Amino acid sequence: MTERIPIREDSFIEGPEGGILLANRCKSCGQVYFPKAVFCLTCFNEEMQESKLSRRGKLYSYTIGRMPASHFQPPYAIGYVDMPEGVRIFAPLKMMEDKPFSIGMDMEVVIEKLWQEGDKEVIGYKFKPSDTSSFEFSRGG
Amino acid sequence: MREVAVIGVGQSMFGKLPEKTVVELGRQAVAAALKDAGLNPRDIQVAYTSRLYDAMVTGQTILKEVGIRGIEMINVENACCGGATAFRGIWKEIADDHYDIGIAIGVESMTTSPIAGKLIPPAKEDLEGQLGMTMPATFALIARRQMWQYGTTIEDFAKLSVKNHHHGSLNPFAQYRKEFTVEEILNSRMICDPITLLECCPNTDGAAAAILCSAAVARRYTAKPIKVIASALLSGDYAYIQQDFTICPVGFKTAKLAYEMAGVGPEDIDVVELHDAFAPEEMLHYEDLGLCPIGEGARLLREKSTWVGGCIPVNPSGGLLALGHPLSASGVRNICEIVWHLRGQAGERQTPNAKIGLAQMLGGLVAGLERQGCVCGIHILAR
């Protein structure tokens, strides 16, 4: 079987319900970080607690790249997704013909192969338009 | 702190010039600045040189070609803000009384760099860079928010590029001296929706140089020195504090610092040169420089206020979009442009009776730091 290596260690898990992103939270001031911070960049407290992020968030912005990027051939979609825990995540997006992107739409995490590196598959997180809308929150403008 | 003045400026031709070495481009700019100041190369006491790609003792390599050696030389890198950083370095050396006369140089050969013809990525190990982030993607993602939050349109972005290409057509140094229509810009190749090719700065080779000295020494060389009334350079904050990506915190903070130092406000500025690597970006900086309230950048453009001939011309040189963007050169080059306007030497693109001008640069894309750039430099000059 092909070896699968994560784009960043300890940043996600694949559960029975799908992908879950692993953030951490400062035990003192509550600030949440994704990717995880070694210590709290806000209050410098060193006691951090792992925090599993929700599987769904809302699309803050998106674009379709039409020129090659480091590991992606065009067209590829990328964007920011706002999570209910208060973090905004940059990630590749999965394009679905029947669900064109729009700001504010519900997105969910998927764990997939991002690219091939020799005989290894680099896996990581993406977001795709979600089937169900199960929460409401607002953030930013 | 001593008062500092600019007494000489110069730039090389800007364009796709792969046959010209960094040394040749730099030599052209330095020779032009020395001639402009009426200085002997031996008069230069300190040099700061900025370059990003493949840099090693670039200053020494260029300056030996014009007869300058044996003095203190510092080489700096600060992404697109490198040139502004070199200029500030010389300003500090003189303001703090270490030296009387120094030269700031910015140079870049983009066509011979490792990223020639590619989208500029973040540093190699950057997580977001690996996930597909690039410079135009950054501003495409922000542009979509500008459209969503403020009703900015793709025609506004195209009109911004029409403006800067019109300005470029008036500038003999510009890489592109051609006018474009809104339709031509919108129909050019899509790079990252909604940003098209003609809304992106091109790959450019070029160099610029500025000679600074103490106000007392300036009087020996010129009756009309251009005073540096503010020099400000700050780095950005963490991205997680930035709730609204259409607002550039480091741009606001650096502008505030510069205005306070100069004792002037945005209403006093006659001409501006700023970092317009992508058309949507220029409108954001109208806001962080205080030229208009947040969300009204597109209105300022639609009213033609920022065109040559408007009440606050922005990027009369053609900006990075039309004049071109050799990364580390641009921060020195845009100060040269301001100096020419303040002296009344800007030819067809001259801002009438310009007394105070502002040169801004922004750069550096790093995962985890604020989105428009992680370093901003602003200089305000006055005659």
Describe this structure in words.
The complex is a heterodimer of chains A (141) and B (383). Chain A is built from no helices and ten strands. With 141 residues, chain A is mostly beta strands. Chain A has one domain. In chain A, the strands form two sheets. A six-stranded mixed beta sheet of chain A has the order 1-10-9-6-7-8, with no helix packed on it. Chain B is α/β, with parallel strands linked by helices and 383 residues long. Chain B has two domains: 135 residues, Peroxisomal Thiolase, Chain A, domain 1 (3-Layer(aba) Sandwich), CATH 3.40.47.10; 228 residues, Thiolase/Chalcone synthase (Peroxisomal Thiolase, Chain A, domain 1, 3-Layer(aba) Sandwich), CATH 3.40.47. Chain B is 36% helix and 19% strand. A nine-stranded mixed beta sheet of chain B has the order 3-2-4-7-1-8-11-10-9. A two-stranded antiparallel sheet of chain B has the order 5-6. The longest helix of chain B has 17 residues. Chain B is globular and about 55 Å long. The mean pLDDT of chain B is 96. At the A-B interface, strand 6, strand 7 and strand 8 of A face helix 4, helix 5 and strand 5 of B.
Query: What is the architecture of the largest domain in chain B at the second tier of CATH?
Result: 3-Layer(aba) Sandwich
The geometry of chain B reads as globular
Helix content of chain B: 25-40%
Q: What is the ordering of alpha helices and beta strands of chain A?
A: EEEEEEEEEE
What's the number of structural domains of chain B? 2
Order of helices and strands of chain B: EHEHEHEHHHHEEEHEHEHHHHEE
Q: What structural category do the secondary elements of chain A indicate?
A: mainly beta
In CATH terms, the superfamily of the largest domain in chain B is: Thiolase/Chalcone synthase
CA radius of gyration of chain A? 16 Å
Which oligomeric form is depicted? heterodimer
Low confidence ranges of chain A? none
Catalogue the unreliable spans of chain B: none
Helix proportion range of chain A:
under 10%
Q: Give the DSSP E fraction of chain B (strand runs of 2 or more residues).
A: 15-25%
User: Strand-residue fraction of chain A?
Assistant: over 45%
CATH level-3 fold name of the largest domain in chain B: Peroxisomal Thiolase, Chain A, domain 1
Query: Widest sheet of chain B: strand order?
Result: 3-2-4-7-1-8-11-10-9
On the 0 to 100 scale, the average pLDDT of chain B is: 96
**Largest interface, by Cβ-Cβ below 8 angstroms: which chains and how many residues each?**
A-B, 34 and 34 residues
Number of helices of chain A: 0
